[in-house]
Amino acid sequence: MSRKNSSQIKAELESLLESYRNEPKLLLNIPITHSKKFGAVPSNKYLQETVGATQAQLLRYPELIELIRGLMIEYEVILPEEIASALEIRRNMKVWWASLSLEEKFELKIFGNSIQFKNYIPNYRGGKNYKIVAALSSEFNDELLELGILDKNYVLSKDRAALRDSNIQERAQKKRDEWAYLSDLPLEDAGDLTQMTNNTEPYVQVRQLFAAKLKSVDSDSGISNYKIAYKHFVDFLIESSVPSDTPLEDILEEFLLSRFRKNYILPNIDNKNIAPSSAATIISCLRQTLKRATQIKNLGFTTFYDVEGIEDVGRVTDMYRPYSLGERKQINDALASDISQTKQLMEPYVYTGVGEYPLNSDYHVIPKKGTLDNARFLFENHLGCEPVFYGHTSSVFADAFLRIILSNDVELHQLYKDWGVIPVVDRALIAPFVLRLAQITGINSDSICALEIDDYLMHHKITSRPCLTYWKERSGGEKPYHLDIFKAELQWLTVSQSKAVKDIFDTVIALTKEIRKDAPAEISKRLFIIKSTGRATYGKVMAIESLTSYFNNYVSKHSIVNDDGDPTQLNIARFRPTFVSELIEKDVSIREIQLMLGHKYLSTTTNYLDRLDFSRVARQKLYAALKKIHTGALAQKNKSKRPKRYLDNEDQVVFTTPLGGCANIFDPPDFIRNSSAFVEGQACSQYNKCLGCENVMLIASHIPELFAMRRDYLLLMQNSRIMTTPYGVVIQENLSLLEEILTPGEDGFSKKELDEGERLSLFVETNIIDSAGA
Fold first, then answer.
1. What is residue 717's predicted lDDT score, i.e. its pLDDT?
2. What CATH number is associated with residue 589?
3. What is the DSSP letter of 518?
4. 288 in a domain, yes or no?
5. Are 677 and 550 contained in the same domain?
6. Do residues 442 and 581 share a domain?
7. Which of 97, 358, 533, 609 reaches 20 to 30 Å from 270, CA-CA?
């Protein structure tokens, strides 16, 4: 076998890198060694053998080796703060564990209610005290606890071996028999589901679905993963107050996987109840189980929205931290540069006419004719100005063209870009548009990846305003996301947010026009699609589900660093808290933030803000507030001339307003008192803000009026231009408040009261429309 040249070695390394991106679990096959300069690194010897390179050839491409190391760090194969020997033991443990069958796990040697790892893992005894090795040992033991192999009620006693051998093994065998029974049942139609009776086990149809999926799982370790995922999914249903006899068709819905990730997995990671690596496996198993559910006829469940997997621990924390001002500027510059370059490449190719025909009658390159200009001659005159690639040619001219490029030792994709040609619509080309859309809207990554080409509306059917229609992570379904409600108050939104979104849609649709023709029907309308360049999926048109594996490349490409000078932890999820951070810095009220985020309840917004890291902004706001208090104390402003009797409402008079009752019409809250329309010493008359006032008193008799008010607000939005005026903000706020008030809850009105009030509202007229038209 002939020795490979440098270009071939580079191509092999790039292909290997892409395979690791597409299938990160392959990274565990790379041994970890120690480098004095970098610490833990992938084994050069292993990479040499894999790509067929000498040590000298491999060392010519340190940037590609570093990218492989970056992926190993990203997927937690390498932890930068840990030593190589501990990481290698940990890697061997993971490879060993993945190779075990379920039966082999039952046969493992146990002592002290723990696996005797020293019998299976080289050097384990010397490395067992490393924290990461001990943590992984605990994780494997926990899995055996879930399977019933280890005793959850383990105590130090002489009888523990007997208990394990009898009771535990007996229970474990019973569980296996139950799974086997359900797995043998057919499940092709909804009628095949086990009928719910008083004697059936809780969530039996859910378990039957998981059991049906087990038929297609080859390894016993995989079967174990699905059983553990089932247990967590049932825990999620219990936490969500889903009755145990609920039919499967009522449990399954499009956003189930997303809600499971958001409401169960992430909180348990935050509470350290689930390790991120285990969480990724759990989500993957549920994803595959839901795909199996879509194959069941007459179940009414045909599709669901996928979610990103779970990233490393550091990134889970970073999901709630906004980008710093410095990071924002760097990201802005990088995205603007990439999008601008892509738009230039989309311009029609300009024929140059350079070069000459360089081939002989056998289509071999004539000596000294293998120049780049002559390659361009072939490109323009014999290849139709269409890019061709190594290993995927169909003509003698394409083969000759690639031989010339290879002999000149230039990078093919970069050469196409230098000529003004888009080589392929891949992740690198589409990623900046995904990031930019996340940046200017604050929409989460799952919703962005699920966008379709017709989800941007120039005129919403109710408000006649531009909006993005995306699917929120909740059972509420479709949610219109208004783009420009508050752009006058927000500096970074003043550059016509809706136009920016429209530009992204138009550009991406044009960019993907040709590959969309080859896209599978189920993704043909997805906005963000790519053509794969990976070894296993080359040329396949795919939808972007995640950009996790690309983030490190993007940060490295543009040298984006945080305030400490370290590479920025780039993540789509961080654009949402950054978006909120911008709102807070502009003193936008929490009610307006609620509207911008599309939250139905104010409590959802406050809980979200509680999780965010706004320490810098909080300190600035606190300093400003303290300074204001201090200044006010020095100035000793005159106290209000309002009589104290009115101020305190000692007589407990309930004042009647056009909306309802007011606890004290002379003492409104600060957001009313600070407005220009309020006159100190006089009764409040800003009735359009009663809904948001803490003094408002609503009882059941007010419900018909509230429903009528909501009805007329919606009509007003549809039939007038008031939404283009400052009053549009008030209407949006009031509609949000009404939605919250008119939703049944323990602290609000009952469903019966609301149903009766809505019926009576048909006979109620308000003065909203008349006063607005005046």
1. 65
2. 1.10.443
3. T
4. yes
5. no
6. yes
7. 97
580-588 long-range contacts, CB within 8 A, separation 24+: 580/322, 580/442, 580/608, 580/609, 580/612, 581/322, 581/612, 581/614, 581/617, 582/490, 582/492, 582/493, 583/486, 583/490, 584/614, 584/617, 584/621, 585/617, 586/489, 586/490, 586/491, 588/486, 588/489, 588/490
Beta bridge partners of 541: 531
Q: Report yes or no on 589 lying in a domain.
A: yes
Give pLDDT, residue 653. Answer: 42
Q: Is 395 left (phi over 0), alpha (psi -120 to 50) or beta?
A: beta
Instruction: Give the total residue count for the chain.
Output: 774
Q: What are phi and psi of 773, to 5 degrees?
A: -85, -5
Helix, strand and coil content of the chain, in percent to the nearest 5, comes to 55, 5, 40
The answer to whether residues 24 and 549 touch, using CB atoms and an 8 Å cutoff, is: yes
Handedness of CA 268, 271, 274, 280 (dihedral sign): positive
Are 405 and 7 spatial neighbours (Cβ–Cβ below 8 Å)? no
Around 9, how many Cα atoms within 13 Å sit in the side-chain half-sphere? 21
Residues 357 and 441 in one domain: no
Structure tokens at 453: 């080409």
Q: Quote the tokens at residue 558.
A: 């543009």
Below-70 pLDDT ranges, the chain: 1-2, 154-176, 270-271, 308-320, 459-466, 470-497, 546, 549, 587-592, 594-604, 606-608, 610-667, 670-672, 674-679, 681-698, 715-730, 746-747, 762-774
pLDDT at 49: 87
Question: What is the distance between the alpha carbons of residues 141 and 150, in angstroms, rounded to a whole number?
Answer: 7
Q: Which two tokens stand for residue 255?
A: 């956003």
Chosen domain end from 301, 318, 335? 318
What pLDDT is stored for residue 196 in this prediction? 76
DSSP state of 470: E
Gyration radius of the chain's alpha carbons: 32
Q: Considering the domain boundaries, does residue 19 fall inside one? A: no
Q: Are 87 and 79 in contact (CB under 8 A)?
A: yes
Tell me how far apart the alpha carbons of residues 424 and 29 are, in angstroms, rounded to a whole number.
30
- Pairing of the two strands 661-662 and 655-656: antiparallel
Contacts of 397 (CB under 8 A, 6+ apart): 359, 363, 378, 382, 383
Residues 658, 746 share a domain: yes
Query: Under a CB-based contact definition with an 8 Å cutoff, are residues 261 and 182 in contact?
Result: no
Helix (H, G, I), strand (E, B) or coil at 698: coil
In this structure, the answer to whether residues 452 and 362 fall within a common structural domain is no
C-alpha atoms less than 13 angstroms from C-alpha of 243 in its C-beta half-sphere: 6
**Does residue 361 sit in the same domain as residue 390?**
yes
Element (DSSP H or E) covering residue 42: strand 39-42
Number of structural domains (the chain) is: 4
The full 3-state SS of 88-117, as one line of letters, equals: HHHHHHHHHHHHCCHHHHHCCCECCCCECH
What's phi and psi for 359, nearest 5 deg? -110, 150
The answer to the question of residue 1 being in a domain is no
CA 315 – CA 404 distance, rounded (Å): 44
3-state SS assignment for residue 481: strand
Q: Do 364 and 482 share a domain, yes or no?
A: no
Which residue is associated with the tokens 């007011």? 662
Which domain covers residue 403, as residue numbers?
Answer: 351-412
Strand-strand pairing, 39-42 and 478-482: unpaired
Instruction: Tell me how far apart the alpha carbons of residues 485 and 317 are, in angstroms, rounded to a whole number.
Output: 30
| Upper half-sphere CA count for residue 395 (Cβ side, 13 Å) | 11
Quick one: pLDDT at residue 770?
A: 41
pLDDT tens digits, 59-105: 888 888 889 988 888 888 899 888 888 899 999 999 999 888 888 88
Main-chain phi, psi angles of 115, to 5 degrees: -65, 140
Tokens of 230: 């089932």
Shared domain check, 550 and 660: no
Pairing status of strand 541-543 against strand 529-531:
antiparallel
If one counts every other C-beta atom within 10 angstroms of the C-beta of residue 624, the result is: 11
Phi, psi (deg, nearest 5) at residue 480:
-75, 130
